[in-house]
Amino acid sequence: MTEKKEGSLSAPTRDIVDWKSPDYLNEDSLDAEMRRQFEVCHSCRRCFNLCESFPTLFDLIDESKDESLESVDSKDFPKVVDKCTLCDMCFMTKCPYVPPHEFNIDFPHLMLRYRTLQKKKGQLSKMPQELAKIDRNAKIAGVSPSIANWGSNKKNTLIRKPLEALTGIDKSAELPKFEKKTYIQQSKEISKVINKDAPAFGRKVAIYSTCYVNYNNTAVGIAAEKVLLHNGVEVMPVYPGCCGMPYLEQSQHEKVVKQSELVSNELCKLIDEGYDIVTLTASCGLMLKFEWPLLNPDNEKIKKLSNNTYDIDQYVSDISKKEGLTTGLSYIDGGITVHNACHARAQNMGNKALEMLKNLPDTKVDVVER
């Protein structure tokens, strides 16, 4: 655990998620910690505009009998917890009291702890836990992607209405489509010619495709592969399995740890062969770099993987800085608006998407962070 001290210019740190400790799910201990952190949030309120968790908490306090946290019933705490999406923005961009500050505020991991107690008490819905089984569900959909996409189309009211009743997914929500072939399958069909004249020739990358790119948005993987090959990088596409972020959101810590060990075992073999690991989805990069080491802190392979994993934008920017990109980039007419995703910001690496896109000549790049 990091030494705590009042006031610091140090970068935020995080304590391990001690989910195996008997105290982790002790109701009295958890209630006391909820109240301790909520009191700090209440006294500060800097995060009022981040998400619905904080306005909900502050309304509970302001509308209570004594307008104080003491008069808020603990039975109302789930109203706050349910609205947290584990985006990590309060921890990474707003809160002045995160570790190493002595107040030791970590709101997202506190919400995770509370959800774990809810899971133990059978208070969480079973359906999201089934939806979290990404690889299983994708393999089922992969038997006939056209039928799966037809059934999930929001225009298909015949299916979507009962699907909403069964799963809780709003019938008007746009759902990801499944590709006929996974990214790993498609990658085998494209040319693997490496540009030996590129300044970065000699680099080796294993692209951890992530479940979303592998099953739903394969074009991202193909584009990343072509960009890296064009810049002289040897590419090895790989997908040992889902990173477990959906399991984390359902407080299924043991399943996250299982996935972390499955994936890290495979990726560390490639690291030993000289490959850097590049992720194509910000949430998955966050898991490999930060969440896995906090949930499984004694696993040396996970530590090694954390230190050798890069977001795709981060990696291309690194090439640009150290060796330089292949010449011939052209401008994009009309400019680009890039969303600086929450889980990209939570990786504490700066806005690498913006940094990468600034390599395009005479191209206006705007950033959206909301």
What's the level 1 CATH class of the largest domain? Mainly Alpha
Put simply, the count of helices is 19
Assigned CATH architecture of the largest domain: Up-down Bundle
How confident is the prediction overall: mean pLDDT?
93
Q: How are the strands of the biggest sheet laid out side by side? A: 2-1-3-4
Helix content: 40-55%
Low-confidence stretches: none
The ordered string of helix (H) and strand (E) elements is HHHHHHHHHHEHHEHHEHHEHEHHE
Rounded Rg: 22 Å
Structural class: alpha/beta
Strand content of the residues, in percent?
5-15%
Quick description:
This protein is α/β, with parallel strands linked by helices. It has helices spanning 27-44, 53-62, 77-81, 89-94, 107-120, 126-131, 134-142, 145-152, 157-167, 183-187, 210-216, 218-230, 245-249, 253-272, 282-295, 300-307, 312-322, 342-345, 352-357, and strands at residues 204-208, 234-238, 276-279, 309-311, 336-339, 365-368.
